[in-house]
Amino acid sequence: MITEHASHLKTETDQTSALENSSTRSIPAAKIPTSFFWTRTSPDIVKIQDDDPVAGTGLFAHNCAATIPYHLLLSRFYLQRDFHPSLNTYCEATKTLLKPHVVPIGNKRTILANFPEISRGFEDDTRDKHHLALSIFKQLGTSGTLHPRDVLVLRGRFRQGQIERVVSYYNRTYVLCSECESRDTLLWQGEKRGWFITCQNCGAEHSVPGVNFVCTLKVTRPRQKAPKEPEKEAEAEAAPESIPESEPRVFRKPEIKSKL
């Protein structure tokens, strides 16, 4: 037992001495933890740095060309989401516009059936469905009617591709910022009847064409029934109208008197 214990102590001392002698050698990449990054400043000196995404050291340095592991990328994503929410514009970029559902009525009318859904994607404190409808009329050179159920009726026959280009033009001109392409913008009118867009994300401001067009928007409302006069209602309740019965149609044989 004593010999075995002595041999075990000897092996431990040999391992520690070997590690002390190899302190000046380069550390192999397989034995380095994944939370550290090593760089070779000289042939015999190794420098270890922490991977701090906030401080920008290690793998997250601006001049680092090494591949970042997936778990570190995921941690940086959550840090960016918590501490820099203004940089997370990926959700806005993936938002797509609805395709217009066009229904032609003869040769003189075209219905935009899903106009409420399209206008709801643009509506805010400065833009509404009437502004979108006037812009569509101006680009198509026509006029139309907005029914109570927000169904837009256009004068003339138009294809679906034409309506798609008009809606896309409205999105680029009156919604998106020309600098950062953010949707967080405000549309307002200046003192000299000019229209401007101010971006809440980058602070850019630029002018946009107005939507004042010769053809105005006609908004129809549901018809209301005229109220009945109280005297006639009282008479109708007191003496209901009697329905005349139709006389039965009976064929009568004509009487013929003989001269005999």
DSSP strand count: 10
Biggest β-sheet description: 5 strands, mixed
CATH architecture descriptor name of the domain at 106-219: 2-Layer Sandwich
Give me the CATH fold name of the domain at 106-219: Defensin A-like
Q: How far do the termini sit from each other?
A: 166 Å
Q: In angstroms, what is the radius of gyration? A: 41 Å
CATH class of the domain at 106-219: Alpha Beta
Low-confidence stretches: 22-48
Note down, in words, how this protein is organized.
This protein is an alpha+beta fold and 260 residues long. Among the domains are: 29-85, no CATH class; 106-219, 2-Layer Sandwich (Defensin A-like), CATH 3.30.30.170. It contains seven helices and ten strands. The strands form three sheets. Strands 3-4-6-5-10 form a five-stranded mixed beta sheet, with no helix packed on it. A three-stranded antiparallel beta sheet has the order 7-8-9, with no helix packed on it. The chain has a two-stranded antiparallel ribbon with strand order 1-2. A hairpin with a 5-residue loop joins strand 5 and strand 6 (152-155). Helix 5 (129-140) packs across helix 6 (160-174). The longest helix is centred in the N-terminal third of the chain and has 20 residues, at 2-21. It is elongated. Residues 22-48 have low confidence and may be disordered.
